[in-house]
Each structure stands twice: as C-alpha cells, then as structure tokens.
Automatic annotation (TrEMBL), chain A:
Cross-referenced InterPro entries: AhpC/TSA, Thioredoxin-like_sf, Thioredoxin_domain, Thioredoxin_ResA/DsbE_sf
Protein name: Thiol-disulfide oxidoreductase
GO biological process: cytochrome complex assembly
Compartments, record wording: Cell envelope
This protein's record includes keyword Transcription: no
UniProtKB/TrEMBL annotation, chain B:
Domain spans labelled ResB-like: 65-426, 429-520
Localization (cell): Membrane
Matches recorded under InterPro entries: Cyt_c_bgen_Ccs1/CcsB/ResB, ResB-like_domain
Keyword ATP-binding: no
Keyword Transmembrane helix: yes
Name of protein: Cytochrome C biogenesis protein
GO annotation, biological process: cytochrome complex assembly
One CC-aspect GO term: membrane
Length: 173, 541
C-alpha cells in the first residue's frame, strides 16, 4: 500500500517534471543558435560575392572553410578583419578558404569597406536567409568547417590574430 | 500502513479526523471542540500524514494551499511587472533592444532591459513559476479530491451522536415523530430535490453533492489550459512572429520555413476628413484632431517553388493579391497575417544638387537610394559625384570618426567627392542632416540638400495557433467548475431517533442562511423543531 503510493507519486511527479523540463528546454532553444551543431554538417548556402562570383559552401569540400559573419558597423568585426586577411594570405595555398558574409548592408558600404581594409577574400552580402539558417544573432561569429563539410568550432566574438591562425591551422586539410 | 479502526468497525486511513462511515471523532484533540471542522469531511489529506521519502516531501510541499496561494501572488506581481514597458517582441526593430529601452524610457528602461523584463513571459524563472503552480494544482487537487470522494461515498445514514451534536445546525427535540409527520417531511424534502436514504427510521437527506467537485473541475480546466500553453512550445503548433515590410519590399513570412513570401505593394493610412466624410463625424474630428479611418496593407502573397539553398534567389509563384486591414487578416494554410503596426515616412531617398558656392550655379540632380546607393553619380559635362562613404545611421564613434550604428537609414550621412571640370581630382564634402562639413579644407563647390523621399513601413503579425481550442476548452471547463461550486450548495440533513428523542443536524458547505430557511419550511407543522444554528446562538449569548 505504502509502496504503491510512493510509486504513484513518483510517476506523477516524473511525468510533470518531464513536461516542465521539455517546455523549458524548448523555450530556451527557441531563439538560440542551436541549429548548428559542432560535429554535424554545415548547412549549405549560395551567395554571390562583390565581384559577381557565386560561392556554394558544398563546393568547398576538400578544403577547410573559415566562415565569418560580420557588418561594417560592428567594431569587433572591423578590428579582426586585418587579422583574417593576413592569415588568409598565409593559408590560402594550404587549402583554407575564407568566406565573409556581411549582414545585409548596401553594396556601396561593403565595397568601400573592402577597399579601405584591402580585403582579398570573397565577401558576400546576405539579406537574411543564410543568417537565419545559421542562427546568427550577435556579430561577429565565426564557424570553422573542415574538409568533410562538418562544423568543427563555433566562435562568437572578436578574434585575435593568434586565434585566427590557430583556427586556420585547425581546419587545414 | 497504519490505519485507524473506528468503534463502528470502519477502517479509516491514518490522519482521518471523522470516521468516514459513522462520523465519530477519531482525534482526541477534536473532541474538546464544540463544532467540528467539516472541511474535506474530516478526511485525511494524504500529504499531512506521511513525510518519509524525498518524494513525499516534494509532494507535501506542492500539496499545501499556502504554497499555492503564495505562487499565485508571486505570479501576479511578476506578470504585472512585464506590462510596465512593452515586451521585446512588440518594439519596432529599428533599434536593438539593448539600446531601445534605455533611449525611450531612460534609466528605468535600461534597468528593465538589464533585469531581463523585456522578455519576461518567456524567461525561465517565469515559466518555472507557472509550472510550479500547475504542479501545485494537480497535487493539491489529487490530495483532496480522492479522500473527499471516499468519505462522501462511504457516509452512513446513522451518524454518531458526537458527530451530530458538533454540527453547526443541530437540535434535539423531546417529541415523537409520528409516521405521518415523518412522511410529510420526507415528501417536502423530496420536493426540494433531496435524495433520501433511510435506515431503521433514521434519515439522511442530501442534495447537490456535485457542487463539492466544483473546485476540482475548475482546477482541471486550469490544468488543461496550462497544457494548451505548453503545447505552444511544440514545433508546428504555434507561431507568433512579426513582419516589418517597407513599401515595395518582399520578404519571406517568418514561421513558414521560407515557404511563403509577402510583398507589400503599399501601406495605406487614412484619416477621417472633416469636409469630405459624413457630417456626423465633424464634431468628433474637430475635438480630437485626427481620427484614423483605415490601416491597410496591399499585399501580394507568393509561394516558393521547389527547394532552395539559403542565399539563393527563390522562385516565387504568385498566390493572390489581398489587402490586409485591421481584423481582416490574410489567411493561408493555418497562418493568418494581421495588420498590427506601421511607421510612416521612413527615409528612403535623398536628393542633392551640386552647387558652385560663388556663382550659386547648380549642376544636375542626384537622387541617392538610401537602401542601395551607387558608387558614383555622373551629372554630365564633366561633373560627377562619388560616394566615398555612406553611414546609414550616422554617429561619431569613440575615436571621433564618423561611423554607423546600424544598417537602418535613421540618420544618413555621406562623404562625397565632387569632381568638376575645374577640380578634376575632386573636393571632399561631408553631408549629414543639417550638417555640411569640409574636412579637407575650403571647397569651391558644395552639395545642397534638395529633398527627401519617404516610404511607409507596415508591420504584420504572423499567427498560427493550433492550441487555441485546447486553451478554450480549458477555459470552458474552468468556468463550469466555477459555476458548479458557486451556484449550488451541498446540503445534508440527518434525522435520528435516539432514546426517544429526535436528533436533527444539518450541514452545508456555504449559504447557511439558505439552508436554515429551507429547513424551517421542511419542519413547519411537523411537531419537531428544525435544527438551530449553534454558531448564531453562541453569538447571542
């Protein structure tokens, strides 16, 4: 009798705890960048860069991809750009590709920024579709994608030259 | 389990105050009281009895009414805090929330944001409070309804003397109750819809027992309501998004996974006109100034064809044109788009003229699209203006350099290079709203501001709700419970023949006056007195 009561109570509490747990979990992950999971394949996208070349992520299989989301109005993004450019020069012949995706600004602003900073890697503008696929909220955010097309690391926030170098080393095929 | 055996032979669960069967007092300290507490029929609330394992402790915590009431009060306070300023989802997306609250509402707004109240209703602690209340409802109800049901089901006709004399309505008549009078009483009771049970000439009359289940039906409704709310977190059940669209803009409808796109052809904002509209409105219009007649978005709905890789331009097929007005949503596939907000006159284009400062001679117009400015504008005859920098939301940053806060053209500023036949290398001019600087020395030419074009922006709520019927059902059951418990009273009357006397006692869960009146009527002309209100008599003394 006593045991039965304990079992009943435990079952009821467990069921309710599960329901509450699920709700909290679903709520927490509602807006969060949980779409991208380290170790899983990076979602494919197609964007046209400022020079008119089409870049499709899946076509970079066999290379490591350093995928950076940024905007000109984001100061940390601006500070890390020269580091990415420097390391791009070091690693571009070793199978590391840099793709920089601007957050929906105008061509003019992005072009002037590229000129000013002397950027040589492909820069493309996304009007929102890629950002929402990747669950981008704060900028900058960098995704490291290995030669198999899997995400190996997600870094939110500003990068130092050291980290950029270490990251590219990490995804070098 | 330790059980309590009553003298009448009935075995009661531990913690029982009044025997479920005969009503004898089982707890010694109850015996000193003149009236007994009839709440839950003196049955054992399970939680009070066992307190052994951690499961029991958790159970007992949630079973407490005090805990439940405290949770309700805390929730009330928390919910009202969330209404001081608008929640994040309702603020215009022109500024990030981190800046919006501070800018619009001052330091209080900033505090509001920092404390996370801008997303209060989906914060983890708010959800935990709601969940705790839900758990408390389930457990507290289970703990009470099961024993209450048992004792009401098991009650005997012959209640013990100690039970009867401690009822609030009680009387002993030193009289006989002849068969004829008894039959009359019973007939009257039956007419008043009492259910009668008799045993050896003793009587139990009872009506409206179902009213006792009212609170539990009410709780059941609330629990269903909460389950409906919980289902909103299940993917596909509920969408509540907002879509801001400028005139002429096409965007994918949020929540539809990129399946549907909407184009805002034009947002229309109409007010009543004092002279054109019917005369009846005239007074009202002069009193208030402007009265809005219509908010309308002329929209075109598109459906995407085929699969899409993010970033690709979608192939869209037109579904239909429709105008969306307040309370006239566009509906598609379970989704509804409602007109909810707007912004008039957002800057979209700026016009300038190149002017010679001395001769005041002007060279050509240039119109800069603030959403897509060109690199340079050729004005012909060797006159050309290059846009060197564009700051859609201009500010001076910490280093004193021009910068942009966001990509929205709230405060556009430009650095122009003006190329003219006499200055082929160009002159640099910095132009912002009401600012015209010459950072690299005195210029011969300047950019004069020649006007502005604006666009309207519409905001639509995207709503899909498959949980509404569950929430509605919960609400309905809730109300049924309220009505059930509020408009009927559970009334009982006991009549016993004890040692040649007639003992009468009565009980109701509320409205004692109503019971008294009813019984006075039943016992009129019967030769015995109706049970008297012992509490009222106490007060008289």
């Amino acid at each position: 009798m006593k045991k039965k009561r304990l079992i009943t109570r435990t079952i009821i509490l467990v069921v309710m705890a599960l329901a509450v747990g699920y709700t909290l979990y679903a709520n927490m992950n509602k807006d969060k960048n949980n779409k991208i999971v380290v170790g899983e394949p990076a979602p494919d996208f197609v964007l046209v860069d400022m020079e008119g070349n089409k870049h499709r992520l899946s076509e970079y299989k066999g290379q490591g991809v350093f995928l950076n989301f940024w905007a000109t109005w984001c100061k940390p993004c601006e500070r890390e750009m020269p580091y990415i450019e420097n390391q791009y020069q070091q690693f571009k012949d070793q199978g590391v590709q840099v793709l920089a995706i601007d957050s929906g600004e105008t061509d003019l602003v992005v072009n002037r920024f590229i000129d000013r900073k002397g950027l040589n890697f492909p820069v493309m503008i996304d009007d929102g579709a890629v950002q929402s696929t990747y669950g981008i909220n704060p900028l900058p955010i960098t995704f490291l994608i290995d030669k198999e097309g899997n995400v190996v690391r997600i870094h939110t926030g500003e990068l130092t030259e050291e980290t950029v170098r270490a990251f590219m080393e990490q995804i070098k095929p | 389990m330790k059980e309590v055996k009553c003298e009448c032979g009935h075995v009661n669960p531990q913690g029982t105050i009044l025997c479920e069967s005969c009503g004898r007092l089982l707890e010694d300290n109850e015996k000193e009281k003149q009236l007994i507490d009839m709440r839950y029929e003196g049955s054992a609330r399970r939680s009070q009895t066992y307190n052994k394992t951690i499961i029991d402790k958790i159970w007992n915590f949630f079973s407490s009414v005090k805990v439940g009431v405290s949770l309700i009060i805390i929730l009330l306070i928390a919910s009202s805090l969330g209404t001081i300023f608008p929640q994040e989802m309702y603020i215009p997306p022109l500024l990030p929330a981190s800046e919006y609250y501070g800018e619009k509402y001052g330091w209080l707004g900033k505090l509001y944001y920092d404390l996370g109240f801008h997303n209060l209703y989906s914060s983890w602690w708010y959800l935990i409070l709601i969940a705790a209340l839900g758990i408390s409802l389930v457990i507290a109800s289970l703990d009470r309804v099961v024993p209450l049901y048992r004792s009401l089901k098991n009650q005997r006709v012959k209640r013990h003397e100690s039970f009867l004399k401690r009822q609030r309505m009680f009387h002993v008549s030193d009289a006989e109750l002849p068969e004829e009078a008894s039959a009359k009483i019973k007939a009257k009771l039956a007419k008043k819809r009492y259910k009668l049970r008799e045993e050896d000439g003793d009587l139990l009359a009872e009506k409206n027992r179902f009213s006792r289940w009212g609170p539990y039906v009410n709780h059941l409704g609330l629990i269903i309501f909460l389950i409906g709310g919980m289902l909103r977190f299940v993917p596909g059940m509920y969408v509540d998004e907002i879509l801001w669209l400028r005139d002429g803009e096409t965007k994918s409808i949020p929540g539809t996974e990129g399946r549907y796109y909407l184009k805002n052809n034009q947002f229309i904002f109409e007010v009543y006109d004092k002279d054109k509209d019917e005369k009846v409105f005239k007074d009202a219009i002069s009193k208030v100034g402007t009265v809005v007649k219509n908010y309308q978005t002329n929209a075109t709905l598109y459906e995407r064809q085929g699969d899409i890789i993010p970033g690709e331009t979608p192939k869209l097929e037109k579904v239909r044109d429709q105008s969306i007005q307040v309370n006239k949503p566009l509906k598609i596939d379970g989704y509804a788009l409602y007109q909810v907000d707007y912004k008039l006159g957002e800057m979209s284009k700026m016009a300038f003229k190149l002017e010679n400062k001395q001769t005041k001679e002007q060279f050509g117009d240039l119109v800069v699209d603030l959403y897509d400015p060109k690199m340079s504008y050729d004005l012909g005859k060797g006159y050309k203006v290059e846009v060197m920098s564009y700051f859609p939301d201009f500010e001076f940053n910490e280093d004193g350099e021009p910068a942009t806060k966001s990509r929205v053209p709230n405060n556009p500023a430009f650095i122009f290079n003006m190329i003219t036949p006499d200055k082929p290398d160009g002159e640099v001019s910095f132009v912002a709203i009401r600012q015209n600087l010459e950072p690299l020395g005195e210029n011969d030419y300047k950019m004069t501001f020649a006007g502005i074009e604006t666009k309207n922006v519409t905001a639509l709520t995207v709503r899909k709700d498959y949980t509404l019927w569950i929430i509605g059902l919960g609400g309905l059951i809730f109300m049924i419970g309220v009505v059930q418990g509020a408009y009927w009273n559970h009334r009982r009357l006991w009549i016993r023949r004890i040692n040649g006397q007639i003992w009468t006692a009565a009980h109701t869960n509320k409205n004692w006056y109503g019971l008294k009146r009813e019984l006075d009527e039943v016992f009129a002309d019967s030769g015995i007195d109706a049970p008297k209100d012992q509490e009222a008599e106490d007060k008289k003394e």
